[in-house]
């Protein structure tokens, strides 16, 4: 590895970033309002939900990222501001303006993100009172508390930071995320905020982050539902003093690797925190004609309720995996497919070769499936493309959590 | 209605059809081998799974339906003959030949369907011994027993027959189906066999049946998984003596309505029998730009684990329904969407209008959701197309049934 993990690192580990979080009253007791702020002008990019019922903050943030120099993100948890119509948009604009005033910025420099209940109006009095307090609370140590402030039903905060050197300068990348997928009513939103002090070319950053999101956040699946509020934002403040990184920078790969590591960690942390989940599942698909095929294949296996319940039951039911591969949309010849099951201890059993079951040891499979990390490795002989995705199993608690009445 | 329900009717209610079923030993005790037979030459059509890992019997039946005059269907339950490679194809061909011999037909006149465990070779000695016995057992009263012989984990047989008059002649349409979706390992297959004594034009029958399958079997969803063995077959024997029905026949609509009724009943019966299901859910989508959009919208809502668990918990969580609508792929403007929740007693509560929640009575919603049939009605103002689909809720028992080890 060409990067170093920063113990306890988070979104304010890169120089120039501050965070402030407060309890404004949207949630009953915990912090529910967070500002992430860059002291330096940024190069910024973001990826938003494809859901047609995108929430008001998503609609506004899409406009924000049409321009450059995004300097802050205002996040509230507890209320998604989705299905709130024109009033929701007006309210969101008011919070954006209030944050801009408090931070001495222009409104279009403040991105928004919300997560929580759908269909309820934002409690504007609480938010408008809380925003100046959150601005007041900004500090370079604020990253850890901010990671808790963006949580809804998450059982733990999701943070990471790494450092690497570019042109002999220390470059830091940090981040925080929330989301626990198998989750309480209307709160299945995934949010991610990544920061870096690297100096980066805007077009390069946009392209690279899009690719990394496709391989990380877009390759995790808990229940296949895409929220109205999903948002991932990357702010690059540029204070590290390195030469601007673009595709031709000699250390571009190093930066990309570190950026990938932070985002992959945050994405997998979300799946791990899936409520009701007892096992993390990693699916690797190799030998497909296109990257899109390889991704579809991995996601179909990870999304299958039949596969998820089988893994929960520690049942090496490869028939369900092949079945989901079959309807994934990926092109393959079943007579060329191999499938192996493995775990976090690197124990492996191959169960299928050229589309036919091998005479494998069922006891060995049962042993492999006892682990908390289950790996499914599928190879087709349709090409050179591969993909990796993460999901979780499906337990009684998923039904319990999601079947209980909203409260 | 322009048709009459035949009490206790099934696939051998139309004149000229016989069925025979026996216990060959694939399953431990119950019937597991069924022949459905037409005494008259048929006009026939079929729809098969899109799964790329299609089982051997599906591959062979696809060829059978390239020709006309399909006279019999050989069905075995307990073994899917899927993921069995060249050996599986050879075995399936042998059963087809054996059935042809026993019925004095050509092999290409015998279609095949299998349902059961994936990846195990067919127990050929048992099947080859059982086929002549099933042929021997053929009778016009055999339809009811046959409907039980094709079952796997189904809790009840699924049959229906209706009669109508075409050109003053009594025309009968009957059928049987199996499938319970939320189901034991590897047995999620849906099979449907529909018969009629109507005289029908081949091209008309193919087109009409395809449309009806799209509106019935393809609009039911239990867990979103498409099996390796899904098969629906329609045989028309023509002995009723009516003038050949095609698109221009003056009573075409009457025939179509009756055919639709039988297939819709069989399809909905499958969803109702979903293991672990406690409620049937019907989703109606109206006002979409295209039929495809309306169908995608209904299926996304019915497929959402979050919606399914909410209905199980009797929670009118419309936010999850709008969220799934948003990622369905259907085009709509959220500001034009209305949503109502209803039940089998025709009690209704509208919860959303023009994309915004109404000030509805939560107690009324709770009352509506106590019923065993829950209706979700969604209207967009994007066009004139509509669709209807059926699903079921998601209970603890789904996890229990599907998480237990294969045995």
What topology emerges from the helices and strands here?
Two copies of one chain form a homodimer.
Chain A: E1 4-5, E2 17-22, E3 33-38, E4 43-48, H1 56-64, E5 72-79, H2 85-103, E6 110-117, H3 124-136, H4 143-149, E7 158-166, E8 169-178, E9 191-196, H5 202-215, E10 231-236, H6 252-272, E11 280-288, H7 291-303, H8 305-312, H9 318-326, E12 338-343, E13 348-353, E14 356-357, H10 362-368, E15 373-379, E16 385-392, H11 396-403
Parallel strand pairs in A: 5-6, 9-10, 11-15
Antiparallel strand pairs in A: 1-7, 2-3, 3-5, 4-10, 7-8, 8-9, 11-16, 12-13, 12-15, 13-14
Overview of this protein structure:
By secondary structure, the first copy, chain A, is of the alpha+beta class. Chain A has 2 domains: 269 residues, L-amino peptidase D-ALA esterase/amidase, CATH 3.60.70; 124 residues, ArgJ beta chain, C-terminal domain (Ubiquitin-like (UB roll)). Helix content of chain A is 31%, strand content 26%. Chain A contains 11 helices and 16 strands. In chain A, the strands form 3 sheets. Chain A has a 6-stranded mixed β-sheet, sandwiched between helices. A 6-stranded mixed β-sheet of chain A has the order 14-13-12-15-11-16. In chain A, helix 5 links the parallel strand 9 and strand 10. The first copy, chain A, is globular and about 70 Å long. About 1% of the residues of chain A have low confidence. The interface between A and B is large, with 63 and 62 residues.
Q: Which descriptors apply to this entry?
A:
homodimer, 407 residues, alpha+beta, L-amino peptidase D-ALA esterase/amidase, Ubiquitin-like (UB roll), 2 domains, 6-stranded mixed sheet, 11 helices, 26% strand, globular
